[in-house]
Design a protein that fits this description.
ten-stranded mixed sheet, Adenylosuccinate Synthetase, Chain A, domain 3, about 425 residues, binds inosinic acid, Adenylosuccinate Synthetase, Chain A, domain 1, 12 helices, alpha/beta
């Protein structure tokens, strides 16, 4: 029996897809446990690059089962469109292969409207959300007014529930935000049609997971976003509304901590962030711009340029604790080639004191005042994209990696050295 959880250690976009791919090839069940189509991962199928937002990356392996778990929020229209794209490429998205947990909550078009309206009303304090309706859907779930995927089982009950929800959202859109109401009937018809197609995919996700566990088959839990976007432990309020951390897999899929064997934290060799909020090691200069261009740091979901900065080991130590990391996958190390000097934040200075712990609980304001204390290491000029073992790496790259392991106290088992699928040093 083995359960592997793959999580992002920073603000998302760490390159989890490639590591997920490695484990998915051996897993019997691949399950998404949090978030919705705010996530984006690029996969290559039939030589074509495609961006998946909801469907687990494991879908490209025909023998496994892919589950969109109860902790996720699902826009049925986005799911159907992703399934259609995959089907056209010959990927099996039949109910045998792709399953949707009855406990997942559904995102309606009006959740998206509310997301946009809420962001607009925040003005300067906007979160910079992906406007996919994620926050409003989790808010409806938390106030016990959500719509679960399982409702789609009875189409008449479902259509009625959708109508009522859209009416309720319209009341908020008009009264709270002064917007026009959204026509109800077309949404009900669209969703009714979607439900008809998605119904065969519905399962009791916890039962499926339990059976797989008891059979002793390997399970892969695929996290979306990253530790610092976690609703509880991220840089609140500049976070997403779910739990991307390892604990999110337990509450999002329904199993206990004793079943977890590996927790792989994916970390970029530098740091990036999309959207607003504090970012202590951000580089608003030509080094940051170079990292953005070389690393192709533009969002898969929104196309927004990502903010870039030095590696922050304070964040990685925090992620190691919050997630109980057993190992780290360090990605995009090649992007740093050509920098004469590299910096790693090892602590912060906050109110004249040295702080070793990421002060997330003190909030965005404390983080904004946190000044990174850097350790400098020599950079390297070599192209490292051909390295396939750690010994192939130039000495300075090995030093950079070993230093991160020492500061964070977690072994680095995967090293990403280039954009190609095989450009990764494996354990
Ligand atoms: P939301 O998840 O759309 O509510 O957005 C909340 C915050 O999370 C914003 O700063 C987004 O940019 C960020 N975010 C959400 N999903 C991702 C992701 O997959 N990668 C990186 N940032 C994300």
């Amino acid at each position: 029996m083995s359960v592997t959880i793959i999580i992002g250690t920073q603000w998302g976009d760490e390159g989890k897809g490639r590591v997920v791919d490695y484990f998915a090839a051996k897993a019997t069940l691949v399950a998404r446990y949090n978030g919705g189509d705010n996530a984006g991962h690029t996969v290559v199928a039939e030589g074509r690059k495609l961006a998946l937002h909801l469907v687990p990356s494991g879908i490209l392996y025909p023998e496994n089962t892919c589950l969109i778990g109860a902790g996720t929020v699902v826009n049925p229209l986005v799911l159907l469109s992703e399934m259609q794209t995959l089907r056209e490429l010959g990927v099996d998205v039949s109910p045998r292969h792709l399953k949707l947990a009855a406990g997942a909550h559904l995102i309606l078009p009006t959740h998206r409207e509310l997301d946009g309206a809420s962001e607009k009303s925040r003005g300067q304090q906007a979160i910079g959300t992906t406007k996919r309706g994620i926050g409003p859907t989790y808010a409806d779930k938390a106030r016990r007014a959500g719509l679960r995927a399982g409702t789609m089982r009875d189409l008449n009950v479902f259509a009625e529930a959708v109508g009522e929800m859209v009416e309720a959202h319209n009341a908020r859109l008009t009264q709270l935000y002064g917007l026009d109401p959204v026509p109800v009937t077309p949404i009900v018809e669209q969703l009714h049609n979607a439900a008809q197609q998605l119904r065969p995919h519905l399962v009791d996700g916890t039962t499926l997971l339990g059976e797989t566990l008891r059979a002793g088959h390997p399970i892969l839990c695929e996290g979306a976003q990253g530790t610092l976007l976690d609703l509880n432990f991220g840089t609140y309020p500049y976070v997403t509304s779910s739990s991307p951390i390892a604990g999110g897999a337990l509450v999002g899929l329904g199993f206990g901590p004793k079943d977890v064997t590996r927790v792989v934290g994916v970390a970029k060799a530098y740091t990036t962030r999309v959207g607003a909020g504090p970012f202590p090691t951000e580089l608003n200069n030509e080094i940051g711009e170079r990292i953005r261009q070389v690393g192709g740091e533009f969002g898969v979901t929104t196309g927004r340029p990502r903010r870039c900065g030095w590696l922050d080991a304070v964040i990685l130590r925090y992620a190691a604790q919050v997630n109980g990391l057993t190992e780290i996958a360090l990605t995009k190390v090649d992007v740093l080639s050509g920098q004469s000097t590299l910096k790693i934040a090892v602590a912060y200075e906050l109110d004249g004191e040295r702080v070793e712990h990421f002060p997330a609980e003190w909030g965005a304001e404390a983080l904004t005042r946190s000044i990174p204390i850097y350790e400098e290491l020599p950079g390297w000029e070599e192209d490292i994209t051909g390295a396939r073992t750690r010994a192939d790496l130039p000495a300075k790259v090995q030093t950079y990696i070993a230093r991160i392991e020492a500061i964070v106290g977690v072994p680095i088992t995967f090293i990403g050295v280039g954009p190609e699928r095989e450009a990764m040093i494996l354990p």
